[in-house]
Amino acid sequence: MYRSARFVAMVAVAGLAASACGGSASGGADETAGDTLVVGVDLPLQGASKDASEATVNAMKLYLEQVGGKAGKYKVELKVYDDSTAAKGAWDDATCAKNAQDHVANASEVAVMGTYNSGCAKLEVPVLNADPKGPMLMVSHANTNPGLTKAWDPGEPEKYFPNGKRNYARVIATDDYQGAAGAQFVAKDLGVKKCYVLNDNQTYGQGVAKAFAEEAEKQGITVLGNEPWDAKQPNYTALFTSIKAKKPDCVFLGGIFDNNGGQLIKDKVKVLGDNEKVKVLAPDGFTGYPEFDELAQAQGSYMTFMGLASESLREQGGMGAKLLDAYKKKYGEDPASNYALYGVEALQVILSAIEKSDGTRKGVRDAVFEGEGITIPADESAVGKEMSVSPETGDVNVIDVSVLHLESKTEKFHKSWPVG
Questions:
Q1: Which terminus has fewer CB within 10 Å in the chain: N or C?
Q2: How many CB atoms sit inside 10 A of residue 212's CB?
Q3: Do strands 387-389 and 374-376 pair parallel, antiparallel, or not at all (unpaired)?
Q4: What pLDDT sits at residue 15?
Q5: What is the dihedral of CA 284, 251, 206, 294, to 10 degrees?
Q6: What DSSP designation does 191 have?
Q7: CA-to-CA separations, 101 to 125, 162, 165, in angstroms, rounded
């Protein structure tokens, strides 16, 4: 694990940022041969997720620069993989499947930070798990679908680990908590009585919508329906016209903004009225998108985020605030996504595993899933709290839910929501 004294000593170290994003060696090939280990970074770099992904990569580059580009005796560099396509403007099944094969084929690569989308992770994890030189570790900063680590849909999570050993971890809590927190919030704080649930028909959206609907009913909210929206539709006027007849006072948008979320919110307001009249709650799949934040029709929306918002991290001080200040100084603005520092947290887990390992894929994976696992102390943690990854499940010990409110084109921290 990283020692804070070493972190402070390395803050001024520079020189890796330009080389880390793209996989070229941080020094010459001869200088680093045999000593340099690669951490893959697997994110959607095209479409609506571009800003959030670039902020996450930049935050990780900055942190790696600050610790001297090393984990224990090993030099470390990042290699960035794009799991999206220009045509789709979002993560893509075939690209995720190819990336998984490319991770395994890269002999220097020992672990993967990613993915952003749970559906992509479900395609990649089994391939990394079956790697004969591994299993190969993946640590996500943003996957919230429960099935990756716990019983959820049929066959989960066992089907993602064909060799019987887990290799997937995350530093963020899951949608069973997020959906429940969102339902409790709209029931208790907003006084919602009738809510219509929509999902984008993808792994993440279906899961968070399911969790929200189940908890909403427990909270006394009438769930008027739970149906998918088709991301390929030119508009959703007919959809919301049918919903209007049911007289909802809330709409839950379970999914990601990439799936035509802009048109969805425009037509929601057009047919059902503004977001004060009929409340809108969206999960973290709608956070960190400047395009969404700037829409007039999106103003007044509430969103949940599975973690602490950057605004909260800065206010609480500590390592998170220092990283945010360093990021703003280097890049001229705050990260576009609250997930950026969770990308750093996931990288901290990987670097700690590398430091404890023998430098092999198996050794890096075993450092997380065998023995006591990995703990990042509070004073070194990018999110300001002691963070432990369970060696039994790969889940994190910290469960935070933030409620955000979109005001004046800014995702403003509204409140923390207690989970329980």
A1: C
A2: 31
A3: antiparallel
A4: 32
A5: -40
A6: -
A7: 11, 16, 19
Q: Please determine whether the domains at 4-173+310-389 and 175-305+402-416 fall in the same fold group of CATH.
A: yes
Do 331 and 58 meet the contact criterion of CB atoms below 8 Å apart?
Answer: yes
Secondary structure element (H or E) that encloses residue 202, with its range: none
Q: Which pLDDT band, with edges at 50, 70 and 90, does 237 fall under? A: very high
- Predicted local distance difference test score (pLDDT) of residue 419: 78
Is 3.50.30.10 the CATH classification of the domain at 175-305+402-416? Answer: no
Q: Contact, 345 vs 387, CB < 8 A?
A: yes
Q: Round the CA-based radius of gyration of the chain to a whole number and report it.
A: 21
115: left (phi > 0), else alpha (psi -120 to 50), else beta?
beta
Q: Return the bridge partners of 227, or none.
A: 198
Q: DSSP E strands: which ranges in 44-124?
A: 70-71, 74-82, 84-85, 90-91, 109-114
Query: At the topology level of CATH, where does 4-173+310-389 sit?
Result: Rossmann fold (3.40.50)
Q: Which amino acid is at 263?
A: Q
Amino acid at 347: L
Q: Are 171 and 387 in contact (CB under 8 A)?
A: yes
Tally helices (H) and strands (E) across the chain.
Answer: 15, 17
pLDDT digits over 41-92, tens only? 999 999 999 999 999 999 999 999 999 999 999 999 999 999 999 999 999 9
- The amino acid occupying position 341 is L
DSSP assigned state of 146: G
Domain ranges of the chain: 4-173+310-389, 175-305+402-416
Cα–Cα dist 329/324, whole Å? 9
CA 57, 62, 65, 70 dihedral sign is negative
Separation of first and last alpha carbons in the chain: 30
- Give the type of residue at 335: P
CA distance 54 to 97: 21
Report H helices in 219-285: 237-244, 261-272
Identify the DSSP state of 402.
E
User: Phi, psi at residue 366, to the nearest 5°?
Assistant: -65, -30
Task: Kindly state the tokens that stand for 261.
Answer: 């979320």
CA pair distance 130, 149, nearest whole angstrom? 17
Compute the distance between CA of residue 107 and CA of residue 40 in angstroms, rounded to an integer.
12
Letter string b/e over residues 129-164, b meaning 16 or more CB atoms within 10 A of that residue's CB: bbbeebbbbbbbbbbbbbbbbeebeeebbeebbeee
Residues, the chain: 420
| C-alpha–C-alpha distance, residues 168 and 355, integer Å | 18
